[in-house]
Amino acid sequence: MSKNQTTDTRNCTCHPREAPNPCQHKYALSECLTAAAQTTQELVDLISLAIQEVDDQHRAYAAQKALNELVSYTYRLEGMIQEKNAKLIRVREAISYD
Fold first, then answer.
1. SS3 of 42, please?
2. What is the DSSP string of 58-83?
3. Distance between CA 3 and CA 12 in Å, rounded?
4. By C-alpha distance, which of 18, 30, 23 is closest to 8?
5. What pLDDT sits at residue 5?
6. Is residue 36 within 8 Å of residue 19, measured between CB atoms?
7. Residue 30 and residue 33: Cα distance in Å, rounded?
8. pLDDT reported for residue 13
9. What gap in Å lies between CA 5 and CA 66, rounded to an integer?
10. Using alpha carbons only, how large is the chain's radius of gyration in Å?
11. Cα 13 vs. chain centroid, distance in angstroms?
């Protein structure tokens, strides 16, 4: 048994969320720090993933909004073209009556 290991039944002094399981080096600060660093890195990774997901969703929303605006503009253009064609037909009919 190494000098860092204990044989008593006392609990590890690490915070419960950061305690290595099982804590073979009770009261060993290095184990607590390692567990805390791993937990912190996991949280950083999760936060990074969440930020990327939100960013992807934002880009998808922006693309969908731009597409909707383009479709709307296309419909307006189509309406204007139909109006101009109808006007052109009326003008041609007026000219042909003369």
1. helix
2. HHHHHHHHHHHHHHHHHHHHHHHHHH
3. 16
4. 23
5. 46
6. no
7. 5
8. 66
9. 63
10. 35
11. 37
